[in-house]
Fold this sequence. Notes:
Low-confidence stretches: none
Radius of gyration: 27 Å
Number of strands: 12
Distance between the termini: 39 Å
Structural class: alpha+beta
Shape: extended
Order of helices and strands: HHHHEEEEEEEHHEEEEE
Amino acid sequence: MLRKFVDQYRLNDWHKYLGKLERAQNSKSHSITHLTADRLTFGKDRLTIVDQLAPSTKAKRTPQQRADALIQQLSKLWLESNSTLTEHRKKYNPKPLKTYSEDLAVGKFVWLHRPKTSMEHALSKKLVTPTLGPFEISKIDHERGEVELILAKGHTHKVKTPEVRPVRFDYKPKPGELKASKVSELIWIKDPPLPPTKPEREYELTEKELSLVNLKNLVGHRVIVYWPTKGVAGWWKGTVVGYDASMKNALVFYDIRTDDIPRETDYFTCDLLNSNKRYRTSWKILHPT
């Protein structure tokens, strides 16, 4: 549940939601036992504000009487829970491998299980979202058990059927929304904001500051990068929208569009960390004035 709320850029705000989600998780009845985690652990459900304000009608008991009643209540609940789970296992186990081949069709959108090549380093595997997408299906090969996904316009990727699952809601992609052209590239800001109208102040990082830079923390920042390529040489402003699985190259969406590239894939990899010592990238951070 945490990964639904945690900031997927930095994964550093999980503590804000832990208490509320713990309350929600432990107060919800299990789909099989129909008992809450609180009742199985403490013998009773947690009191709500209404319960605390209402006058108590229970007779007062000694500590020993409360302890005996709790043990008796817990024993009864555990027996009921174990009996229900045993019947459930007999009925449904062993479970076959869940596949969604009957729900797949060309034109539908699916989630792709995050491949190992796109698992970025130094992130929590429990908090990071386990899927990529949604992606549209362009072709289905039933004989091979494969589906072809459209990562972006002109870029497709074949995967086995068990690696995808259908989107359960009516998903419609935004026009011009950024899409990764490779499964090893992670785009977090799919709809970058327009360039600011006010002037921006340039700041060049020192060598010490550059050694401490993490690409995760650069996502969303405005940068200005020098391109030495003939014909386009000069300083170009843009926004860092993601990075690749190696955590060495940033994905930069520049303010000026490229004529022959669709907007949804009009981003470029840039070695902002200067991991390649032979070809160093000159760039600066942009701050609003």
